[in-house]
Amino acid sequence: MKYLGRVYLTLNLLAFASIGLGALFNPESFAAAIGFSFTSPIAVPEFLATYAGFMLAIAVLLLIALAMRPHRRAAYASLSISYIGFAAGRLFGMFSSGSFDERNLLFFALEVIMVIWGLYCYRESRWLPLQHGH
Question: What stretches pass through the bilayer (predicted)?
Answer without folding.
Answer: 47-67, 74-93, 105-122
